[in-house]
Amino acid sequence: MTSLLAVRDLTVQVPARALKIIDGISFSLGAGQTLGLVGESGCGKSMTCYAIAKALPRGIAQTGGTVTLSSGAQADGQGRAPSVAMIFQDPTSSLNPVHTIGYYLESALFRHQGLRGSDARLEAMRLLERVGIDRAKSRLRSYPHQFSGGMNQRVMIAHALAAKPQLLIADEPTTALDVTTQAQILYLLEELKAETGMALLIVSHDLGVIARLADRAAVMYCGKIVETAPVTELLRRPAHPYARALIDCMPSIDPADLEPPIPIPGSVPLLDSLPEGCHFHPRCPRASGECSVRFPAPTNIGLVHEASCYHPVVA
Ligand code: SF4
Predict the structure, then answer these.
(1) pLDDT-derived band of residue 315, with 50, 70 and 90 as boundaries?
(2) Which of 142, 229, 255, 274 has the most neighbouring CB atoms within 10 Å?
(3) Is 0.85 exceeded by the ipTM?
(4) Where is the ABC transporter domain (predicted)?
């Protein structure tokens, strides 16, 4: 199957300081599939999304590799590049406070679908209703500060849908929301994915979110992908000690589970002082001498399951 998104050896740097934020990562995503990028804050997940969306912040540049979006994966028939939309962690600060929700949505509908006037207004109302916001007609006159964080995330999703995306990038879409709203937003994303057939690239530090939505997961550490696997396989048989550690530090809500979460020792190193070899070695309980010399190449752990580790947890 042709990939909708193919990322090959992507490298992103702060050129002025020669700092590598993303270091030669590769992955692909087919139409209708969901890939989860997981890892601690500062591992490069968000920058990967910005690079794919061609929206890297000023002072940060893609210095290597390719990001290919191919409409061949969809029955487009006209050779158009697939449309990409993105939603962010903090919806309220992502919305312009001086514009109404209606202005925000109708502008997007004009830009992406050429709709204006009453056509744009009707479609904006339909999108608001679709993402679960009632009294859509009057809500179009509201400002972001009049909405809760969860409602603003729904507005962001409606805005993304205005682009009829074939790929939706969701960067920590539930992190700033309370638990019940998180569940509602995840359910909405699941529904919309099933309805539209769009592919989803979801970023989270929370393995529970990835487990809920993704078919496959890629674990990132210090700008590199250290393990990729189907989500169920990753949760059952993590191979990389970092993936194992991420699972072990998840709190359980099962009262019968008396094992306390195990914190990962130390913290993610700064980009300007990355340890040589495998960047995880100062925190890794399985590290040996060779781990601090050279970064391990990816090896097959199982069918479509790879990890970059000299001493994987499962072999
Ligand atoms: S390569 Fe070595 S240090 Fe890195 S995760 Fe594997 S065992 Fe640990």
Answers:
(1) low
(2) 229
(3) yes
(4) 5-247
Instruction: Name the amino acid, one letter, at 173.
Output: P
Distance 231 CA to ligand 1 centre (A): 21
Give the ligand 1 atom nearest the CA of 226: 5
Pocket of ligand 1 (CB under 6 A): 240-241, 278, 280-281, 284, 286-287, 291, 296, 309-311
* Interval between CA 238 and ligand 1 midpoint (Å): 13
Domain ranges for the chain, please list them. Answer: 5-83+165-307, 84-164
- Please tell us whether the domain made up of 5-83+165-307 is placed in CATH 3.40.50.300: yes
Burial of 180 (0-12, 13-18, 19+ CB in 10 A): exposed
Query: 41 pLDDT exceeds 50?
Result: yes
Q: Model confidence over 218-228: pLDDT tens digits?
A: 999 999 999 99
For the CA of 284, the nearest atom of ligand 1: 8
